[in-house]
Amino acid sequence: MTMLKAITFDLDDTLWDNHGVMARTEEGHYRWLLEAIEAWRAARQEPTFGLSYEGGGLDYLQRRQQLAKQVPERRGDFTWLRLRALEAQLEAEGLPRSAAMMWAAAAMNEFHRLRVQVTPHPEAAGLLAALAERYQLAAITNGNIHLQRQPLASYFPVAIAAGELLAPKPDPTPFLTALSRLNVAPECAMHVGDSWQEDVLPAQQLGMHAVWVSATEDHALPQRVHRIAHIKELPRVLEKLELLYSGGVYSH
């Protein structure tokens, strides 16, 4: 009988609401950069820096988008795209290469300081603690949050940053990498995530169970796919699967 042995989780908008923190991070790190450079130049009695938040922010976004097209293998490595875009932008504004690299790196430090300030759903820690007693757990994310700086990190001995593998979801590579590190076959694993395209379909196509975290059901659910509106409903799905397993429905 094929029993469930491991559960992998998407992070953003699965274990926490990511929209607010990303908006604060996006604005916060770029405003910090411009203000810090202005203060640095003033202390050196250098002219005011030419970038504004609005114009500079748009140029920063366009540079990232262009880089993703020029270097498609890096399209999911958001930290790399941001760092290279900032370096190029600051050099274009007249900073020496060394200064551009220094300030771009400092801005990304601020980005990650803000990025990690997510608030997990109240049920998340207790849920993961209970699951860890019965299953192996892993995280698979396309995001660039530094999970090791987040309180939930202790529940994920295996954490896959798909962009750093140069294979963002829905590429099967991050799923297969996680399963390999867990030493678990796809049919013995479940993936939980909010994206139909990036979480549900690739996991289901590999033979994993998939749980789609979505408040609205606008897709027909294929075999091995389950839908919940919130992560707190996951135990209900697991209880149902246990009943099916015990009845031999998924036995081989």
TrEMBL record:
Pfam families assigned: Hydrolase
Keyword terms, alphabetized: Hydrolase, Magnesium
Stored InterPro entries: HAD-like_hydrolase (IPR051400), HAD-like_sf (IPR036412), HAD-SF_hydro_IA (IPR006439), HAD_sf (IPR023214)
Cofactor: Mg(2+)
Keyword Magnesium: yes
Biological process terms in GO annotation: riboflavin biosynthetic process
Name under which the protein is recorded: HAD family hydrolase
Natural source organism: Vreelandella titanicae
